[in-house]
Amino acid sequence: MVETENLSAKGVPDMFERYNEKARRVVFFARYEASILGSPEIGDEHLLLGMMREDKDLMRRHLGEAYLAQELRDAIAALAVFDGESSATSVDLPLKREAKRVLAYAAEEAMRLGNPHIGTEHLLLGLLREEGGLSARLLRERGLTIEAARDRIAKAGKDALKEPAAESGVPGRLLAGFRAARTVGTPIRITGEGSSEPLLAYQGAPPLVGEAIQLRAEGQAARRYRVKDVVWNFVREENGSRLADVEVVVAELSGEG
């Protein structure tokens, strides 16, 4: 779980180190939206407004014809509660509890999908997971569910890879589904679902959540598994954070194609 206490949207604190540039700009735009709308805090609705400013393509992909930017903006203005007058956009604003949870959910979603960096797609999933928030309500009313968004984002990630599976001579190595080359060399631990004992370990690149993979330990027949989760474990160091290892949680396939 990501620490969410004492966060603001000004500057780039440690928790934003893993955010890509588009995701950082969403947070900065959220502060701007909160300021001009007279809110003393940044809420999940302001993050949605920031998303609409920064990544219009993402919004169109997930909402299709239901995405009408001005209509959605008007709905937020009509339903959100703003207590004050517009403030200077340079003023630092704290995050509401709901917005903090959205950011924590986004980090979790990135890890679930096997992404070391947090992007706008993960922020969208975070907004949908905050079910009691205004943003999730408005997105659901326009036909977007967390399940549909996850499936679309996971498929986009797989399509972007398009790397052919090739058998390796290294015992126990995955035969399919390797991630980006920058993760090669990272210690990978394969564990069975519900167990902390590793099935095997290797150095390479982890697969995607939901992917069917094949594992073969030395001297044993290959077995097929479904990836249930990918957990990226970071350690804090003096100059920032470092990826320590990755745990891939799998469940053995029995009769599933």
Q: Please, could you describe this protein's structure?
A:
By secondary structure, this protein is an alpha+beta fold. It folds into two domains: about 15-160, Clp, N-terminal domain (Double Clp-N motif, Orthogonal Bundle), CATH 1.10.1780.10; about 180-250, no CATH class. Helix content is about 35%, strand content about 20%. It contains eight helices and five strands; from the N terminus they run ααααααααβββββ. It has helices at about 20-35, 45-55, 55-65, 70-80, 95-110, 120-130, 135-140, 145-160, and strands at about 185-190, 200-205, 210-215, 225-235, 240-250. A five-stranded mixed sheet has the order 2-1-5-4-3, with no helix packed on it. A hairpin with a 5-residue loop joins strand 1 (about 185-190) and strand 2. The chain is elongated and about 65 Å long.
CATH class wording of the largest domain: Mainly Alpha
Strand fraction: 15-25%
* Number of E-state strands: 5
- CATH third-tier fold name of the largest domain: Double Clp-N motif
Give the overall shape.
Answer: elongated
Q: N-to-C SSE series? A: HHHHHHHHEEEEE
CATH architecture of the largest domain: Orthogonal Bundle
Helix content: 25-40%
